[in-house]
Write a structure and sequence with these properties.
about 400 residues; alpha/beta; D-Maltodextrin-Binding Protein, domain 2; 2 domains; three-stranded antiparallel beta sheet; 13 helices; 11 strands; about 35% helix; disordered N terminus
Amino acid sequence: MRHSIRRTLVAVSTVGIASLALAACAGGGTDPATDPDGEFEPLTSISLQLQWLPQAQFAGYYVALDQGYFEEEGFDDVEIVPSGGDIVPQDALVAGDVDFAVAWVPKVLGTLEATGAELTDIAQVFQKSGTLQVSWADSGIDSVADFEGKRIGSWGFGNEWEIFAAMADEGLDSTGVSITTQDFSMNALLDGDVDAAQAMTYNEWAQVLEVVNPETGELYQPEDFDVISYEDTAGAMLQDAIWADTARLADDPAYADAAVRFLKAVTKGWIFARDNPEEAAQITYDAAINAEAAFPVGPTHQLWQMNEVNKLIWTDDPFGVVNEDAWAQTVAGALAATNQDGLNLITAEPADSAYDNTYIQQALQELEAEGVSVEGTYTPLDVVLTEGGQ
C-alpha cells in the first residue's frame, strides 16, 4: 500500500554541504559527508515512511506538501508512505525502500541491536511521550505500582516498552502482570477485556471520550476514568523521530544535503501546524479521506489530534533537537526493562551514531537566516469532542 503525492517543481534551493561540518553535533559521532567542490547532483525526489495511517500525528509532513515547502527546498517528487501495521518504518529504511522514516526511538534501538543495521535519528519531532494507560475510575489502578495481577492492555509491536520500563522502575516482576493485546481502539476497555488500556493522548484517549455512556446518554467524561501518563514516570521514552541511513549520510553528499533540505521543509510544516492548528488538521483530514487506506476518524477527532500533538512537539527544547537527558532515559529504560519472557529490548548502549543533531541544527540555522522564525510556543485549543469525532 503506497500513497504518493507528487508536486511540480516551482523553486530550487540547495545547501552548501560543507557548512554542515561547522554545525554543532550534540550527540552521535558521525561527521556529515562533505564535498568541498560542491560536485554532486542535488536530490529532487524524496520518500518518507510513516509508522501509521494518515492522521494529524503526521500533520507537519502533509502540511509541507500542501503548502509547497518541499518544493521551496528543491524537491519536485515527494512520496509519503503510510503504514497500517503492514510496514515497519525502520525496516523499510534499512531495505532502501524509502529515504527517511518516522518511528519511535525504542523500537528502532531494538531493531538496530537485533539486526546490526545503522540508522540515525536526525530530528526528534516529539519531545514528550504521549502514551497513557486508561482504566475505569473505580478500578484502583492509580499508578504503575497497581499493575501487579492486572490485565494491562497494549498494542504490542514495540509499543509495550514504556509499560515494561515503568514497571522495572517500580520493581515489579514483569511475569506478575498480564500484558494483554488490544486492538487500535478502546473496545478492550469498554468491553471489559483489559483492566487498563493503552492509549495515546492524541488518539485513543479521545476515542473513548467520543463514546456515549449508556448510563447517562451523554459522552463519557474524563472523570469516568483514571489515567496514568508515562511522561510522568521513569518509563517515558522518546517517540516520533525522523530516521536516516547512517552510512548513506556519511558517504553520499547529495543525501546529506537532502537531509537538511528535507528537515527545513518539515520544520516549516510543523511551524504552520503550530500556528494554524485548525487548518493543519483540515489538511490532514483531506489527505486521509483521499488516501488508499486511513483510520476512520472525523474532522473533530483530527483537530483533537492536532492540538495534542502540538503539545508533544513544542516544548522548551528547540524543535527536533534530541534532548540528551530524554535520550539517556529512553536508553536506560530499554536496558532495564524485561518483557514477560524475561528478555530485554536491548542489552547494550546503542552506537554514538544512533542520533546526530547536526542536520536539524543546520536546518534551523538556515531557516533563521532566511527569516523563518523557529522559536515559539503553542497555545492549546479547547477542543469539544463529538460522538465518533465527527
